[in-house]
Amino acid sequence: MQSYFQDINAFNAMYPQEKVYLHFDNTAYFLEETIWFKAYVMAANAQRQSQLSKVLYVELLSPEGAVLETKKYPIVNGGCHGEFHLDSLYLSGYYEVRAYTRYMLNFGDDAVFSRVFPVYKNVPEGNYHQKTILDRDLSRRKKIKEHHVLGEQSILWKYLKPSKATQEKYYFEPVKPLDPKDRLKHISSNRAFDEQFYDKEEDIHIDFYPEGGALIKGAQQNIAFCISDKEGKGVHAAGRIFNQHHQQIAALAPVLDGKGVFSFTADDAQYYVQLYYKDKQYRFPLPEAQDGGCVLTLRQHFEKDLIEISTQYIHNEVFNDSILAVVLSHGGNIYRFDLVETAHSQRLLIPTNAMPEGVNIVSVFDAEGRTLAERLCFVRHRESLQACLSIKDNSRGYAFNPYGKIKLKLQAKDADDKALPGRISISVRDAESDDLSFNTDNFYTWLLLSSELKGYIKQASYYFEKNDRVHQLHLDLLMLTQG
Length: 483
What we know:
By secondary structure, the protein is mainly beta. Among the domains are: 132-200, no CATH class; 206-285, Macroglobulin (MG2) domain (Immunoglobulin-like); 293-379, Immunoglobulins (Immunoglobulin-like), CATH 2.60.40.10; 411-482, no CATH class. It is built from three helices and 31 strands. It has helices spanning 2-14, 443-448, 469-482; strands at residues 18-24, 29-30, 34-43, 48-49, 55-61, 67-74, 79-85, 93-100, 113-120, 134-136, 146-149, 155-160, 170-174, 185-188, 196-198, 204-210, 220-229, 238-243, 248-252, 259-265, 271-277, 280-285, 293-301, 306-314, 323-330, 333-341, 346-351, 358-365, 371-379, 385-392, 407-414. It has a five-stranded mixed sheet, with no helix packed on it. Strands 1, 3, 4 and 7 form a four-stranded antiparallel sheet that branches. Strands 10-13-12-15 form a four-stranded antiparallel sheet, with no helix packed on it.
């Protein structure tokens, strides 16, 4: 069995993966502006600059998904920089920038870097608070068969009456922040335009995520869950768990964006969850439990910088192994391998400083190499990097004119107060007009978190605001529900 995992490491060493991150100068743009970016090409398993590829491909896509422009940049010392000019002939909308090397395409579309930006209609100089996405000639009370909606919002567009200022046009502007990776979708409608549009969907749904992957009878197990509406937005709805005789077994409540976790021991009975949301009740069955297998439990001891991994094997005619392999991996590389017996529960204590920082995978295999259980965990080391940024301007204090000269003093030091060398890119934006709802990622959160998980992570930077117990528990909940 050990030789099998050695072969996996040998394969990953022979065919390493790359990551690309683009640092942009802004979070949103107007037509006729330029999108500037600095690109970093990294080795995925080592978190350092890649030496594999020599050319980076960067694409600009229209709101309809058509490739408007493709540029090729030579990669020098793991990076390059470039720009896209937003032509005045373009339509306002949500544009996507994608970046990749040819080598990255061998590992599927998930390896491609993607970022979506709102691009607003051009406005008179200085009037940057008017951010218009749609602009259509519409007669009053005209019925249409299509309007644009972005999923995270309940009130999405504000309808403005015609005036001389708008040249007798009706147009729409967003009245709430919008998530960057929600794509525009077309919803059929025969309603007349009114002063505001509402998304009246109220149905909710719950997904269950047993720790380790499968719900197993006869063992206490943690089950994470995520409650969402039809648009995928997390909702806070309290609930209770009942058996087939309608007797309450446990209660559940979300703790963050509709996500939570409860402990449960499954048996042959039938169970369901009843949720209470907006004066309505919703009923959902729990997933069916299997008769045997391995229960994997992971607990982080944050104060002691330890991770505790427990395995409990439930035997039957199908699951009759005597030895299991507990494997820890990061970036495709296996760095720890333990054999455990199935006769009784096993426990491993692993110092977090012996684990790579970022998303790690804990897997349990049987003697034939089949995965019995798997679970993601996030390891965050004590801060070893301290970056200090100060802005000074003797004549103006902290108020600056557009394109005005400012003085920046940047210091990057380690925990021992020693200066750290490196290449740094900085974007300076107007705090009053900056819309951070379109970007909560940075190089650190993307490298360690967003690029390792599938799907959009809402407010990824939140999980790194503080390295305290609350944020660590919320980060572990993300591993359970989105891993």
